[in-house]
Design goal:
Layout lengths: L1 H22 L20 E4 L2 E6 L4 E10 L5 E9 L1 E5 L4 E5 L13 E4 L5 E2 L2 E5 L3 E10 L7 E11 L16 E8 L7 E9 L2 E3 L2 E3 L3 E8 L5 E10 L5 E4 L8 E4 L4 E7 L7 E11 L2 E13 L2 H33 L1
Length: 337
């Protein structure tokens, strides 16, 4: 009798634990946007948004990019190069994209000059674009006699000056940029570390926690060249039917990781139903690790009202079992007397 009551108590405790697991979840925040994103507020854009170059020592590389003024007013803008790097934030425990930190992988910033209106190559220069017009900006990369092997990264910005106005007469500023991915000859080290893979059933959306199955992970570049990291989440039902799978070629779970940086890769099932039992698989791979790392998790999505009803029913069943057992014990006691 005591053994049976003990088992019932364990069952009740398990039910409470089940409730905590179902209603729990991790908070996840997205990484900042790419530097190449143009600002729609100022009608200025740049093309292309990225360039990949093979670099050798003592060489001159000439190229151009296009800056478009899509507004109805003249626009003055300044072009210059800045380091393309990530800076670790201790407060947020994450890497944030920044354009001021110099390291061994941003030396290319010092090698870039722009051709001004007089035909001279300078570090920074200014142009004025007529309404609804394009300007081709020529730039030059002059590598020194000795360059480090591996990746070199910079952003070529077209920054509107404070005097620029839009069609409404409001002063605006923006800085669309072209990201330069340079790879210098020498020993190429392609190396990564994948860690902290997790599957969650809630996430923050516009500051509000919502029931959405999502997966996250960290990818660290321990080599000297950039690589692509990809995540693939697969959600299946208890009978094996697939409810969601990260689309092939999706940019949602695919990121570029430059050296000396650890970034988050993630994906989410935006159409997660309010009720269901699912098996979730999350796999993260990189260019140098195609096997990658995999985690799986059994996820139960259930509204709080249903959880409360289940707990109440479970409590009623447990109480009924206890009462029945006590009555049987009393009958046995009377029979033995």
């Amino acid at each position: 009798m005591r053994s049976l009551i003990k088992k019932i108590s364990v069952l009740a405790l398990a039910a409470l634990t089940f409730t905590a697991v179902v209603s729990g979840g991790n908070i996840y925040a997205d990484e900042p946007g790419d530097a190449s994103t143009s600002s729609a507020a100022t009608s200025i854009s740049i093309s292309p948004v990225s360039e990949v170059l093979q670099l050798t020592a003592s060489t001159i590389y000439d190229a151009v990019f296009k800056v478009s003024n899509n507004s109805d007013s003249p626009m003055e803008f300044e072009v210059y190069a800045a380091p393309y790097a990530y800076i670790y934030s201790e407060d947020e425990d994450a890497y944030k994209l920044g354009f001021s930190r110099e390291n061994n992988f941003t030396q290319i910033t010092r090698w870039i000059t722009f051709r001004d209106v007089n035909g001279n190559y300078v570090e920074k220069t200014t142009f004025t674009a007529d309404p609804k017009s394009d300007i081709e900006v020529a730039y030059r990369i002059t590598t020194p006699e000795s360059i480090p092997a591996g990746g070199q990264y910079a952003v070529l910005f077209a920054h509107t000056l404070s005097g620029s106005v839009n069609s409404s007469g409001i002063k605006t500023e923006a800085s669309p940029g072209l990201v330069v991915y340079g790879r210098a000859n020498g020993d190429t080290i392609l190396s990564s570390e994948i860690s902290k893979l997790a599957i969650n059933n809630t996430m923050l959306v516009d500051g509000e926690e919502k029931t959405i199955i999502n997966a996250t992970g960290k990818v660290k570049n321990t080599g000297n060249v950039d690589f692509m990291a990809s995540g693939k989440m697969k959600v299946t039902g208890i009978f094996g039917n697939v409810y969601y799978e990260t689309p092939n070629g999706s940019t949602a779970a695919r990121i570029s990781v430059i050296p000396d940086t650890e970034l988050s890769v993630s994906d989410s099932w935006k159409d997660t139903p309010f009720f269901g039992i699912f098996n979730v698989e999350w796999k993260v791979t990189t260019d140098d690790n195609e096997i990658g790392e995999v985690v799986t998790k059994f996820v139960i999505i259930m509204p709080p009202v249903i959880i409360i009803i289940i707990l109440l029913l479970l409590t009623v069943v447990i109480m009924w079992i206890i009462i029945v057992l006590r009555k049987r014990k009393e009958r046995r006691s009377k029979f033995m007397v």
